[in-house]
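fyi for ur records
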Amino acid sequence: MTTEPTDRSLPGARLGDQHLRRLVVGEGLAAVVDALFLVWLTLYVLELSEPGIATGLVLVAVALPRAALLLPAGVLVDRLGPARVAATACWLRVAVLLALGALVAFTSPSVTTVALLAGVLGAADAAYFPAALALIPAVVLTAKLSRVNALVQGAESGGDLVGPAVAAGAIAAVGFDVTLGVIAATAALAAIALSPLIRVLRRGEDTRGDAGPDTIDREQLSSVRALGAGLRYAWHEPLVRGMLAAVALINITVVGPVLVGGAVLADQRLGGAGSLGVVLSGFGAGSLVGSFIAGWRPPARRGWTVVGGVAAIGGGVAGLAAVTHVVAATAVVSVVGVGSASLGVVIVATLQERVPKQLRGRVLSLVVLATVAFDPFSYVIAGVLLPYGTTTLFLVCGGAVLACAGLVAANPAIRALR
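which gave:
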């Protein structure tokens, strides 16, 4: 096992090359589709039924298969190659969106039917996310990894920032069916952009005479053993283990407090629940800034950038305990966004660079799992601490993240990262 930089599949790739443009456009459009569809789905279910358990059922139907299938999907990425899995997942998204669009346009689907189709989309997401991350280092030179990750993450942050307004405005103007058709067309463009990369990467492997992505330590492993090999690698590599632990802890201690606690804070101190949207827009704007700073000016000392990113998140969450005005809250949350985005770019680019190619899909699926799997626990933590007041909630959770920054700084593998 090694943490040294690995070779690139396309040694001649440059940021302006046609294949790289396909990668950035395809993954950027896919990120925008995610943001738009989640808003569309929430509003459509609210249209079908009263607010309450039905909305939660559909959102859980997306989240459960996504979380449950992420690790097996990582094995699939390493066996079949990231381009094939990413493109196939994109086309599956298109098929489900078209099927859902036909039901919306010509019938009155039940909440259960919508939930089932949403579950299939969740399964497609589970395959797409690690494949998309593993596809970037297969196409991009090491020196460009941070920049390309910043572009893709910037598209995701931009979608989160403007997606709610765009989706809601489109639904009001042209209706649910036409809006979903536009989302499906955007998903198709993403699939069209990414599909040619299957042939390109296969041709590159044939030229070099690679044994293939599913050959690990000179033997074909079963799916269970292959998954175990990925988990053992992540556990025994201090750099990978430390980064995954930091991402998981941040997810547990930030998501619920910011969303749930932020709503209470807005209602109690910031002039009403409507101000929450303004505050969260600060996170989106900060994420855009953080992505492009980390991408266009990659830090010379990446380890200390990781420490600083974790500390910025913790300081921002703790700072929410003291805010009394919407402008101050927006500014503080934007600091959280800057830290989160810069941290994401550095961590993902580092793992793409240093994890061996044959293990990339599995390790990156762990990164996605650490990002999305702990949301329920985060909401529970917020619910347990909220009775003691928002000040206690933000100070405890922000303090936990700041303590995590200290632990990250104490990790020699991360601290020495260049």
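Residues 238-269 form the longest helix (32 residues). thats all i got for now
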